[in-house]
Amino acid sequence: MHSNGNGLLTNEEQRVPSYHEQSIPTRPEAVNTDTPLESLNLNWRERDLPERVRTKHVHRLHPYLGKFIPQLIEIFLRKYFKKGQKILDPFCGSGTTLVQANELGINSIGCDISAFNVLLCQAKTERYDLNKVSREVNDILDRMKNATHAQSNQRTLWGQSLEKPALILSDDDYLKKWFATKALDQLLTYRYFIEHGDYEYKDLLKIILSRSARSARLTTHYDLDFPKKPQTEPYWCYKHGRTCQPTTDALQFLKRYSIDTIRRVQEFAEVRTNAKVQLIHGDSRIVKFPRINGVITSPPYVGLIDYHEQHAYAYRLLGLVDRRDEEIGAAANGSSKKAQAAYQKSIADVFVNSARSMPKGSRMIVIAGDRCNLYDGIADLLNVEVEGKIDRHVNRRTGRRSSEFFESIFIWKKC
Q1: In sequence order, which ranges of 109-229 are alpha helices (DSSP H)?
Q2: Which of 19, 51, 98, 228 is most open to solvent, judged by the fewest CB atoms within 10 Å of its CB?
Q3: 281 or 48: whose pLDDT is higher?
Q4: Cα–Cα dist 173/191, whole Å
Q5: What is the CATH code for 11-124+274-414?
Q6: What's the confidence (pLDDT) of residue 161?
Q7: Kind of pairing, strands 277-281 and 107-112?
Q8: Can you tell me the distance from the alpha carbon of 234 to that of 182, in angstroms, rounded to the nearest whole number?
């Protein structure tokens, strides 16, 4: 066996065999601090890790392109961190790290430049009064049903039949472009009730609204991630294998996701702990973080996803602050050599800033699709020891993707 001259195995020697070569993938609950890194097989197949397990409780509270699976995070939380400690995810995204840390009794801090991501994380990690959640979700849905069944030029708001309020009208060209008139009217009415109702859990109601809006857009059923133009005519649907019609009704989704949200919040309540979750809406390159015991995160990939654009409908519908110009590695900036160099510096700046709050000897666990081979260079910019790297095959199960995909887990130790 050969090393690279520094006592470390080369990338090829460190490569974990694919799931075709190993038959027993690692069970997260079997991992502890003594589990050898080289023994981890993270190449789960569908039969090893079915969708209902990967998307348990609040992890499927709202679709989010590019998130990692909770079982992957659980393994490294169990191996490197303990109950009562505090970890940071400086790219918290949809909150996978925060939710899994809470399950294991580990305190967490999540930071993200995206206002929608912070809203989603807040809704996922909030400690709820379950009876009140059920009452509020059902109450606003009942109001929606009453409003929908009223005459087309009227709405029943808190028992009063009124001409359609100006607050429910929209002059947003984006919303009018991507939603049928009826669907948009329903979504704006639901938003009106959130804004003017006496509800405690408005963030959760906003997530129900956003999830419904995502499904109610004028787009094909098989292209909900980044539709390029509104679909206004019948089309052949690859997802359902038949001719489908564009969606014109949002109420069906508001009903469906209301039920699903109540169930998922209840399921998470059964496993959550008293571990604290702190959320920060900001730029992780400059935020001053409190003391932490380590970092576990999945940074954005260079030139792959525009995270603000992914949820553009939510930003428009909820009036969220758009800070897309501060995104690191945004697809709009491409993946040229110049973009890669800027990406490396920005990611390194985040980790340098995070490391200021970490004690010597603590770890950074970084999950990345390093297709441009940038992370060795990023590590060189940090005061860290490279403890290991695991490459894993990602069994893509959703979307119309045919190519294979791999991601790497980098384990860095602060010097």
Answers
A1: 115-125, 130-149, 173-178, 181-196, 202-216
A2: 228
A3: 281
A4: 17
A5: 3.40.50.150
A6: 46
A7: parallel
A8: 18
